[in-house]
Amino acid sequence: MSKEEVVKETEKVKDEMEETEKKPKKEDKKEKVYEAILNIYTSFNNTLVHVTDMSGKTITKITGGMVTKHDRLKANPTIGMFIAKRIAENIKDLGIKNLFVRVRAKTGNPAPGPGTNAIMKSLSRSGFKVLNILDVTRVPRGGPKKKGGRRGRRP
Predict the structure, then answer these.
(1) Residue 60 has pLDDT above 90, yes or no
(2) What is the pLDDT of residue 32?
(3) What is the mean pLDDT of residues 84-107?
(4) Local confidence band at 22 (pLDDT 50, 70, 90 cut-offs)
(5) Beta bridge pairs of residue 13
(6) Which strands form 47-52's sheet, in the order they lie side by side?
(7) Where is 79: in which H helix or E strand?
(8) CA angle (43 as vertex; 41, 44 as ends), nearest 5
(9) If residue 130 lies in a helix (H) or strand (E), which one and from where to where?
(10) E strand or H helix at 42, and its extent?
(11) Would you call 21 helix, strand, or coil by DSSP?
């Protein structure tokens, strides 16, 4: 082979490589569906919602105090809906479609606060799929000794 033939061959190979690089891959067309963990902590005084990715890194965090200035309204279902609206705005841009929900109430309380159901309902209405709901409320197991002695406190 002469030098000119080798140069022509290399040019052909380069042209073929450029053509294959220009074609879009099939994987790029598919939208990736991401999951996130939605941590809801509701007491009867406040509502905290914390969204993390699957590894635990914070994506967004919104509380009742960020939505309203009235202390008495921070644990309202209406405020819960506003919190959910803000969360939806923040995480839709990232391509998150599926949520694992972790609900936590105040330690020892039998039920979570009033904002929990409103938050979950609002998020499911705004197009998010709730994959799992888990109650992670802490349970006291014994704890420190009560004051008052063996026969209790007497008047």
Answers:
(1) yes
(2) 63
(3) 93
(4) low
(5) none
(6) 58-63, 47-52, 34-42, 96-105, 129-135
(7) helix 77-92
(8) 150
(9) strand 129-135
(10) strand 34-42
(11) helix
d(CA 85, CA 67): 10
CA–CA dist 93, 95 (Å, integer): 6
Q: What is the pLDDT of residues 64-82, one digit of tens each?
A: 999 999 988 898 999 999 9
Cα gap 51→53, rounded to integer Å: 7
Please provide the CATH number assigned to the domain covering 66-129.
3.30.420.80
Mean predicted lDDT score pLDDT of the chain: 86
Tell me what the mean pLDDT of segment 145-154 comes to. Answer: 85
- The answer on pLDDT for 29 being more than 50 is no
Burial 72-88 (b: 16+ CB within 10 A, else e): eebbbbebbbbbbbebb
Tell me the domain boundaries of the chain: 66-129
Q: Which two tokens stand for residue 98?
A: 């599926």
Residues 134/93, Cβ–Cβ less than 8 Å: no
